[in-house]
Amino acid sequence: MKKITLKHGVLFFYIFDGILLLLFIIGFLPFTKKNKVPSVPSALLNPNYESKVSAIKISAPNASISLKKGDEFWIGTSLASNGKYIWPADVQNITNLINSAKQIMTVQVKTENVSSWKSLGVDAEQATCVTFYDDNRNILSQIFFGFKDSLSLKLYFRTWTKNTVYEGLSFIENFLSTEESFWADPFLYPQCITGYDRRKSESLFRRGQIQNIGFKEELSVDFNLQKYFENGSNILFNIYKNDKEFIVIPSLKTGPALSQKDAELVSSINYRYSISSVTLDRLLEDIK
User: Fold this and answer.
1) What DSSP element (H or E) covers 198?
2) Residue 92 — φ and ψ, nearest 5°?
3) Strands of 87-88's sheet in order across
4) What pLDDT digit, counting tens, does each position of 197-230 carry?
5) Strand order in the sheet with 223-228
6) Which of 178, 175, 154, 174 is nearest to 166 (CA)?
7) What are the pLDDT digits (tens) for 260-280?
8) CA end-to-end distance (rounded Å), the chain
9) Is-contact 234 39, C-beta < 8 A?
10) pTM of this structure
11) Which of 167, 139, 133, 134 is nearest to 153 (CA)?
């Protein structure tokens, strides 16, 4: 009988070990496949619907923002003022929201069980809901955003047409705000009046926080200023002192460059906001 050398014995051991490992992997593959989290390509807003978006609503428990589009500009109002005050909206933030919503990406299916909605925060009582409408107030898309996964830091969300809850899209969290000051045009001279591009507007003055407060008609104005712009538009600033800051109630008058639709939107604006004494001094210096 031929003797098995040490070299052959070691080789035999490795071959046998390799076969066992291969069998283990083959046996484990179905289990891995079975437990793999399904992934699907998704977009919150069909890219083909982008041009049809004429209104957006962002609602959360006890708060909401409503945005309406003209031809080039947007206006907004909120539940905080019960729709009483209307402000020029920040076109850049709205554009970024729409661009984020139409982006196609891969998300993971979390569950298809409706009973899990509450624990994931995507039920109607807890979720932040973003709705895109067309001109006839038909829903183009509606998404309910819930809690954030503690490990992946991605948001749970569902659409208005399915029970499925997905996980992903954490980038859109920046646009789930229901704060008026986030969605309102940030400039003392709003872009719907000046026609300035973003870069030029950024170099000028910024307003303070949006304020939902009224003033008695007999209350005297502390400063009454008017600013004219190259495009024929102008702003009348009625400014009231309020403790250590000032409240501004601007009246906006459009020039001939705006379309009729945009001009009608601007004519409905009646907001007010705060400014600091430093900003007031700069405004006085600019207008004199």
Assistant:
1) helix 198-202
2) -65, -45
3) 39-42, 105-111, 165-168, 155-159, 139-148, 128-133, 55-60, 63-69, 74-78, 87-88
4) 999 999 999 999 999 988 776 678 999 999 999 9
5) 223-228, 234-242, 245-253, 273-275
6) 154
7) 999 999 999 999 999 999 999
8) 114
9) no
10) 0.85
11) 167
130, 44 Cβ separation under 8 angstroms: yes
Query: Which pLDDT score is estimated for 17?
Result: 53
Spatial distance between the Cα atoms of 178 and 111, rounded to a whole number of angstroms: 27
Among all chains, which residue has been given the structure tokens 């994931």? Answer: 120
Token code pair at residue 9: 């014995």
Is there a contact between 69 and 54 (Cβ–Cβ < 8 Å)? yes
The count of other CB atoms within 10 Å of the CB of residue 148 is 15
Both tokens of residue 225? 């200023």
pLDDT for the residue 28: 43
The amino acid that residue 1 corresponds to is M
Report pLDDT for 37.
Answer: 59
DSSP code of residue 89: B
Per-residue tokens: 226: 């008017």
